[in-house]
Write a structure and sequence with these properties.
Elements (H helix, E strand, L loop, with lengths): L6 E6 L3 H9 L5 E7 L3 E3 L4 H5 L9 E3 H5 L5 E5 L2 E5 L4 E4 L3 E3 L2 E4 L3 E3 L12 E2 L3 H20 L3 H7 L1 E5 L3 H21 L9 E6 L10 H13 L2 E5 L3 E5 L2 E4 L4 E3 L2 E4 L3 E3 L3 E3 L11 E2 L12 E3 L4 E2 L13 H17 L13 E6 L2 E6 L2 E4 H15 L3 H17 L19
Parallel strand pairs: 1-2, 1-9, 2-5, 6-20, 9-22, 11-18, 12-13, 12-18, 13-14, 21-23
Antiparallel strand pairs: 3-4, 6-7, 7-8, 10-19, 15-16, 16-17, 24-25, 25-26
């Protein structure tokens, strides 16, 4: 790579991987364009707090154009990528065609319904800011309707919330709804007895938080019990039709609200002109330098890539730290002009929160739970947020909620009925 020539890099995705790569690249060597369907960077670990009315959407989102002002030689183009023409070296979006010398795909993941595609329009999901807002609206809608409903069967269905999937997101949203059941419903919905509210967490395997330690799984289970959440392990959802959730063991539960957190798949698109397709989990198979196998000058970072190593023979975990470290390593290789540094993941630990003063943290062999783990969880997430305003607003919201058990964010804001602008 000639060091005195500037090459064009297109990064698809303005998440952890995309932004960190753009910041680390030498702008004397690279002209960088970030493409994203949204004009903001989101913070996925806190989507569940938007869904449960704990935080406003703008607190965990940051305008990409504001961030571009800090990154010399980098610009943002809005658009949804339709495909890539690797022969012409062009990215095709719904708004333009953008040429590249090097393409980096960092699109993250979307919901995986495991072949039950009919669920897409029936369940609530929280894989994006807009999905989290919709989830918040639907939860508040059920509580408002139930507070006026006099039909016992209908009321029971309205007040039954089923979370499918016992990973970090499922545990966290279940804990948030459990806190709402214990502390918010008695104060703000006097016509609803909190015992009428059912929060059910269904996990298909034998334990929660399967990627964390056994101790974390047990502690999370205990904490959810304290928050009056009914955890059902070894419970596989079979279908959801006509307001009835059916499980593989034959049990049926009537509910108006199913929150799906059970699976994810890579958010991908077609690469024309190259003999390459996404691998297991909809993820691009990459080599140790994050190059997509079978595609020239195309790389994948973060959750959308399938990267293995001696330490992680199956696959690296889909965590923010993996994406960030991959971005740093790729930038070093790109800046040096040669691929001499293979990616090696430095595991800094995993964590999940269940509610106030309730969290679990695994740092190697060290396991932490309870209030201290919760403080660690808050500190890590605050530091990871973009923008001082966002950090301050989130901290104030958390402190206010901690001392008052209240929130001014339980607002049912419905989408405008006005038609979309024609392209």
């Amino acid at each position: 790579m000639a060091k005195n020539s500037i090459r064009r890099m297109v990064i698809v995705g303005g998440g952890f991987a995309g932004l960190n790569l753009a910041k680390d690249l030498d702008k004397n060597l690279w002209e960088v364009t970030i493409i994203d369907r949204n004009n903001y960077h989101s913070f996925p670990p806190l989507f569940y707090q938007v869904a449960s009315s704990g935080l406003e959407p703008s607190s965990i989102s940051f305008p990409l154009r504001r961030e571009m002002r800090k990154i010399r030689g980098c610009r943002y183009n809005m658009g949804e990528v339709l495909c890539v023409d690797s022969r012409r070296k062009v990215v095709v979006t719904d708004l333009e065609e953008l040429p590249y010398d090097v393409l980096v795909i960092a699109t993250g993941t979307t919901n995986n319904f495991f072949g039950m595609d009919g669920l897409r329009d029936k369940v609530l999901t929280i894989k994006s800011t807009s999905e989290a807002i919709r989830c918040r609206n639907e939860i508040l809608d059920r509580l408002e309707r139930a507070s006026l409903c006099r039909d016992a069967e209908r009321r029971r269905s309205l007040l039954t919330f089923i979370i499918v999937g016992g990973g970090p997101t499922g545990v966290e949203i279940a804990g948030a709804l459990g806190e709402m059941k214990r502390f918010i419903v008695p104060r703000e919905y006097p016509s609803i007895d909190r015992d009428e509210v059912r929060v059910i967490l269904a996990e298909g395997s034998g334990r929660l938080l399967g990627a964390m330690s056994e101790a974390s799984s047990a502690d999370a289970l205990e904490a959810l019990g304290q928050l009056m959440v009914d955890v059902k392990l070894g419970k596989v959802m079979k279908s959801y039709d006509d307001g009835i959730v059916r499980f593989s063991d034959g049990e049926e539960i009537a509910t108006d609200s199913v929150i799906w957190t059970a699976g994810i798949t890579g958010s991908t698109f077609e690469i024309k002109g190259a003999d390459v397709k996404p691998g297991p989990g909809g993820r691009w198979i990459v080599d140790r330098f994050n190059r997509i196998e079978g595609a020239d000058d195309i790389f994948a970072l973060g959750d959308v890539c399938l990267h293995t190593s001696e330490e992680y023979p199956k696959v690296h975990p889909q965590l923010a730290q993996v994406a960030i470290q991959q971005a740093h390593t790729l930038a070093r290789n790109m800046n040096s002009g040669q691929f001499s540094i293979p990616f090696s993941y430095n595991n800094k630990g995993t964590m999940a929160t269940v509610g106030r003063n309730r969290a679990v943290v695994d740092l190697g062999r060290l396991h932490i739970k309870g209030r201290f783990a919760w403080i660690v969880w808050m500190g890590v997430h605050l530091v990871s947020l973009l923008g001082m305003r966002n950090k301050a607003v989130v901290l104030i919201n958390w402190m206010w909620g901690y001392f008052t058990f209240s929130s001014g964010l339980r607002l049912l804001l419905r989408q405008s009925p006005y038609p979309k602008m024609q392209k």
